[in-house]
């Protein structure tokens, strides 16, 4: 199985890579050092890239070739009150969650029956004070995927939206750490793989 994991140096992306060790793995992230370490541990090929840059995204996907499984584990989180949020923060949220996904789907090539997996959010968890920018970026991603799913279905590609509860990854560091009861990255990765590898895969997987 030919697999690309973007955001591979994050907690969830790394856990997915380790769970898929033995597959033909391509690992992408912006931090070259941790990416190399992960590739050595999993046998994956490290491909550093900033996927918010369309030229880098296209070059990455041209090198990878046709995929059976794609995981978009890219994202950022942060608290930005409405009265204080900067344009830079808003654009950064949209770039990390929406633009990276759009560029992947624009330039990726898929084998028939392939699955492309993206991570949304339970609305009740993110539509809270301080997280309007994050919630908007996740909402935009989910809307984009809903429409894109109908287009790519004609090519035999399945788009899967995964909604996870809190996962204990580095995304929580700026917020003081993960909440009590958060899933470990390994537990989250196991649940995701169990769901998305079903036949047929779900359109929306709520873990």
Automatic annotation (TrEMBL):
Domain Ketoreductase: 1-178
Gene3D superfamilies for this protein: NAD(P)-binding Rossmann-like Domain
EC number: 1.1.1.153
Keywords: Oxidoreductase
MF terms (GO), sorted A to Z: sepiapterin reductase (NADP+) activity
PANTHER family: DEHYDROGENASE/REDUCTASE SDR FAMILY MEMBER 7B (PTHR44196), DEHYDROGENASE_REDUCTASE SDR FAMILY MEMBER 7B (PTHR44196:SF1)
UniProt record similarity statement: Belongs to the short-chain dehydrogenases/reductases (SDR) family.
Name recorded for this polypeptide: Sepiapterin reductase
Source organism (scientific name): Thermus aquaticus (strain ATCC BAA-2747 / Y51MC23)
Lineage: Bacteria, Thermotogati, Deinococcota, Deinococci, Thermales
């Amino acid at each position: 199985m030919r697999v690309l994991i973007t955001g591979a140096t994050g907690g969830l992306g790394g856990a997915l890579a380790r769970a898929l060790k033995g597959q033909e793995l391509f690992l992408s992230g912006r931090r070259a050092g941790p990416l190399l370490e992960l590739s050595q541990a999993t046998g994956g090929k490290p491909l550093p890239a900033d996927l918010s840059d369309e030229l880098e995204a296209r070059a990455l996907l041209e090198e990878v070739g046709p995929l059976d499984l794609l995981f978009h584990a890219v994202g950022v989180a942060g608290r930005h009150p409405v009265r204080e949020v900067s344009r830079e923060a808003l654009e950064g949220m949209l770039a990390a969650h929406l633009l990276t996904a759009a560029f992947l789907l624009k330039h990726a090539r898929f084998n028939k029956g392939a699955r492309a997996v993206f991570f949304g959010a339970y609305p009740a968890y993110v539509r809270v004070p301080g997280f309007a920018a994050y919630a908007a970026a996740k909402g935009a991603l989910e809307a984009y995927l809903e429409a894109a799913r109908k287009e790519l279905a004609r090519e035999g590609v399945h788009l899967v939206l995964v909604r996870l509860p809190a996962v204990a990854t580095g995304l929580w560091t700026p917020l003081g750490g993960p909440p009590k009861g958060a899933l470990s990255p390994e537990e989250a990765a196991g649940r995701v793989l169990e769901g998305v590898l079903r036949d047929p895969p779900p359109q929306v997987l709520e873990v």
